[in-house]
Amino acid sequence: MAVQRSLWDDPRVKPKGARFAKFNDIGDEHEGVIAEVTIQLFDEGRDTEKAVPKLIFEDGTEVTCSASNLHRMMYEQRPEVGDHIRIRYVGDDDADYNRKLFDVDIVRADPSF
User: Fold this and answer.
1) How confident is the model at residue 56 (pLDDT cuts 50, 70, 90)?
2) pLDDT band (50, 70, 90) for residue 10
3) Where do the domains of the chain lie?
4) Which residues make Cβ contacts (< 8 Å) with residue 52, sequence separation at least 6?
5) Record's superkingdom (predicted)?
6) Which one of 8, 33, 49, 56 has the fewest beta carbons within 10 angstroms of its own beta carbon?
7) What Å distances lie between residue 66 and 41, 76, 97, CA to CA?
8) DSSP E strands: which ranges in 59-107?
């Protein structure tokens, strides 16, 4: 008798294309060259609609910058297509409901920016 696999082992279930970055553990990091900067909408069309930056790296990795600290850093640093970026989860702010804290390093494709 064949061993029953989990539904999650079925290759038809695997998402096509996108690889979503996760920052589960302190020290997790993702880096790459930005191929696209776009917006991810949450609660679209509702009063609670929220637009956050989303970075897509050349290798297909997608980083949705919804954590408030990371969203603010993206807004302040304004990464652009062609920039090399590294995002590292460095800890939690216990004073602010365990908000995730990040470090962001950017090497600009255009040094004059």
Assistant:
1) very high
2) confident
3) 17-86
4) 39, 40, 42, 64, 65, 66, 71
5) Bacteria
6) 8
7) 10, 14, 15
8) 61-64, 84-93, 99-107
Residue showing tokens 């602010």: 96
Measured CA to CA, the distance from residue 62 to residue 77 in angstroms comes to 18
Spatial distance between the Cα atoms of 57 and 35, rounded to a whole number of angstroms: 5
Closest CA to 88 of 34, 40, 37, 31: 31
Predicted TM-score of the model (pTM): 0.77
pLDDT confidence of 9, banded at 50, 70, 90? confident
Residue 80 confidence (pLDDT) above 90: yes
Token output for 86: 């590294």
Token pair belonging to 54: 């989303």
- Can you tell me which residue has the tokens 């004073």? 95
Write out the two tokens for 50.
């929220």
